Amino acid sequence: MNKVSQSAYSAAKAFYALNTNTYEQLFEQQIAMATLGMESITSQMKLMSTTQDYNAVVAGQTELANEISSKSQDIARNSMDIMNESKEEVSAWVEGVAKETAANIEMVKAA
Q1: The Cα angle at residue 53 between residues 49 and 57, in degrees rounded to 5
Q2: Using the 8-state DSSP alphabet, how is residue 111 labeled?
Q3: pLDDT per position in the chain (111 positions), as tens?
Q4: Is 73 helix (H, G, I), strand (E, B) or coil?
């Protein structure tokens, strides 16, 4: 039974590590999005305070919107990549645990 307990502990520890890694990566993406929001506000305030011409303000706003959109899409893509990688890691973990569980069942039956 000690091997079964050790196997369960190792599986739980590995799953915890997978979740922690995914959480950290996603949290970094949240920070990137929040940073982008702060940079956007700063850029817009700078534009509004330094530009007197209406057409220049509109052109500047358009440029800022395009830039923010592009950066937001990059962050979203990174987040999706993280989730896809996590899905693959968890699938591999489940397959490994299933094989180990089957082996442990056989060992317990034999005992």
Answers
A1: 65
A2: -
A3: 588 888 889 999 999 999 999 999 999 999 999 999 999 999 999 999 999 899 999 999 999 999 999 999 999 999 999 999 999 999 999 999 999 988 888 877 776
A4: helix
**Helical segments of the chain, H only:** 2-50, 54-110
Residue type, 18: L
Our measurement of the distance from residue 93's CA atom to the centroid of its chain's CA atoms, rounded to an integer in Å, reads 18
Residue at 110 is within a domain: no
Number of domains in the chain: 1
Q: Cβ contacts of residue 106 below 8 Å, gap of 6+? A: none
Tokens coding 37: 């929001």
Parent domain of 64: 2-105
Tokens of 12: 């739980």
